[in-house]
Amino acid sequence: MTKGTQADVNPDLKKERLKCNFNIQEVTFIIDGGKDKTLQRKKIEDVALNIAASIDEVPEECLNLKERYDNAVRKSCVYSNIVKNELLEITGLEALGSPGLRRTADAFFKDVSPFMLHLGMFVPTIIGQCTPEQQAHWLPKALEMQIIGAYAQTELGHGTFIRGLETTATYDPATEEFVLHSPTLTSTKWWAGGLGNTANHCIVVAQLYTKGQCHGTHPFIVPIRDLDTHEPFPGVKVGDVGIRMGFNTADNGFLRFNQYRIPRENMMMKNAKVMKDGTYVKVARHEKLTYGTMVFVRVTLVMEAAFNLAKAATIAVRYSAVRRQSQPKPGEPEPQILDYPTQQHKLFICIATAHALQLTGLWLWRTFEAVLADMRKGDTDSLPELHALSSCLKAVSTSDSAALIEQCRFACGGHGYMLSSNLPLLYSFVTATRTYEGDYTVLLLQTARFLVKAWEQAESGKVLTPTVAYLACAAAKEKVVWSDSVDGMIRSFQAVAAGKIAACAENIKRLTKTGTSLEDAWQLSTVRLVAASEAHCRAMICQAYWHEVTRLTASCSASVKIVMEQLATLYLVYWALETTGDLLRYSTICESELNKLQLKYEELLALIRPNAVGLVDAFDFRDEILHSTLGAYDGRVYERLMEEALKSPLNETSVQSSFHKYIRPLAKGKL
Ligand SMILES: CCCCCCCCCCCCCCCCCCCCCC(=O)SCCNC(=O)CCNC(=O)[C@H](O)C(C)(C)COP(=O)(O)OP(=O)(O)OC[C@H]1O[C@@H](n2cnc3c(N)ncnc32)[C@H](O)[C@@H]1OP(=O)(O)O
Ligand SMILES: Cc1cc2nc3c(=O)[nH]c(=O)nc-3n(C[C@H](O)[C@H](O)[C@H](O)COP(=O)(O)OP(=O)(O)OC[C@H]3O[C@@H](n4cnc5c(N)ncnc54)[C@H](O)[C@@H]3O)c2cc1C
């Protein structure tokens, strides 16, 4: 964080920091996943942000579309040199997924780098889908930025339904090449980040045909532009998809092939191969291993959701400590808006959710690594559970994060609507995460498949995998006894999930018994299935969050343990109050217990209040990363708003040319 001198800090923020009663650094270590991780992150930030090239003289949002893109490319080149020459030195390949890299990227790009998908998906797909020999060929070139790649899976006609993709890759044994072709308008690749103007290579997911047979979708590495001239190769048509709600510097593109040939070796052959004579050989033990990059990105998106929400919460809480408004008691000074319980209600859940998603995300990452280790030994048994877990957690975390970032914007009143607050841009960036890498509903329905199967296993007394083990207790179908202890609340959330899953399973059974096909019975139950999946995910987040807080604060100072537990309890109570209808249905909770719960919630808001600024300081964001007039460490909100306003191109002259051209003639009746 950029602390400046204490004299520069807004007096209200100064007082808030004196009120804070816990060790901020200890909380930072917990959020980062350990002291060593914090130190590494800070080192990366220091190295990367000492290079002033990230600074824009004119705010990014004041440039036109083309200027913004060119500027983003310029900064991407500076930044990729830093990654290549400095950051990879610090941590090796691990740097690519490190929080330090993620954070410093935000200091360079208020919107998104056109190189993001190169690092975010192109490189991970090479690592996940190539044979060691292919990796040795492609990876150094990609890491050295000799080639720049995109990931083109989605088409104009299909994003969700991958099996329905239309682009074909037909093997020609005579030349030992694949012929890529886009047979229809709807087969045009659409959306790939970095593809429109930047990438010279692209991972293309296409239907593989060999010896006259289709073997489903497979990934290929495809050179699309000449490395020297950057002109698209004959047979390749590529361009930008047009202006978007956000991501306007991400260079999302379209791509069409006309009988375009690539060598056989460009098929990514870790999970399946095509031999020289065209024989198709399946290597992988699990049908869906070609979907591996998506699972990897979904796992990382949970912490991405936490990260972005933490930024918004930092901005809104600091601003709420500085902003004074209204006069609830006559004659008294206007209070800080953070003193209003309604403001606390809007904001403290944002801090708690950022913690919940970050700690759940770290736990999910460890689970992912364990599954990966099993798969290296040839064991894919835990893949279905990982898919179910990562699907629902990606869906719920990105959806919660987007909704709460918007809530932070509301919490900042009119100033939150300024682009210089950074909240609108943050929202437009994060709301896309609910759609990309698997739409919210679609992913929850994937988890639902796993849950209904698990329920059937529970009913027949089979052993269940860890994340659904709670279903075994719920098979008794009795209402759970409500208790407002943490364990009691988690048990109740699980009972809600189990009750909803059971109702779905019963509904499907009832419909199929009366002659409805299984597919139709499933469709007719999907509204409930999505709700069941969401309830399961919420119960899982509550359990993982509380478990991690208990584990991680075991050796912390007492005050840190208290504040972390207050936040986690707030999260549980908040969701109990949000889902009272469900609790009334599946637990023994009654009116008086609901009233007690409401009181407990209000008490927690009051307890957290003195530590609110300390808690967002613990996210440890440097001002360069927050990019916010409202959220800077020093709280000089009004000064910064004025400084930014003066940078607007509309303030360059006191009279605009349009006055002479239109307004004056209009007034004189000459227009
Ligand atoms: C250098 C400087 C640089 C500076 C920058 C520096 C920046 C630094 C870095 C910055 C980082 C920033 C953040 C990250 C950035 C990322 C951005 C990403 C952007 C967005 C990318 C995208 O957006 S990219 C496209 C993603 N597009 C989807 O996401 C499609 C969803 N659609 C499906 O994913 C399938 O279509 C769908 C539904 C499963 C059905 O697939 P399907 O039809 O084949 O399968 P069925 O439904 O029939 O299911 C049959 C059985 O398969 C099982 N199963 C299915 N999937 C499975 C799986 N994966 N693993 C195991 N099992 C699986 C299922 O559970 C069933 O099991 P069972 O039979 O036992 O029940
Ligand atoms: C900013 C951004 C960046 C992207 N980057 C990339 C990229 O780099 N590479 C890439 O390949 N793709 C990329 N995408 C595409 C993205 O992965 C898809 O948009 C996403 O997977 C959703 O697919 P879709 O657009 O086909 O939506 P659709 O599937 O058409 O969804 C429309 C609606 O239909 C519903 N629906 C669809 N199927 C079902 C079902 N089976 N049951 C119930 N409801 C259903 C959905 O819930 C949704 O409400 C990007 C998208 C965005 C917005």
Automatic annotation (TrEMBL):
Pathway it works in: Lipid metabolism; peroxisomal fatty acid beta-oxidation
Acyl-CoA oxidase C-alpha1 domain: residues covered: 291-452
Catalytic site: E437
Keyword tags: FAD, Fatty acid metabolism, Flavoprotein, Lipid metabolism, Oxidoreductase, Peroxisome
Domain called Acyl-CoA oxidase C-terminal: residue spans: 487-667
The protein, known as: Acyl-coenzyme A oxidase
Species of provenance: Papilio xuthus
Cofactor: FAD
Pfam families per the UniProt record, alphabetical: ACOX, ACOX_C_alpha1, Acyl-CoA_ox_N
One Gene Ontology cellular component annotation held by this UniProt entry: peroxisome
Every Acyl-coenzyme A oxidase N-terminal domain range: 23-148
Similarity comment: Belongs to the acyl-CoA oxidase family.
Localization (cell): Peroxisome
Listed GO biological process terms: fatty acid beta-oxidation using acyl-CoA oxidase; lipid homeostasis
Residues reported in the UniProt entry to bind FAD: T154, G193
Record keyword Flavoprotein present: yes
One Gene Ontology MF term: FAD binding
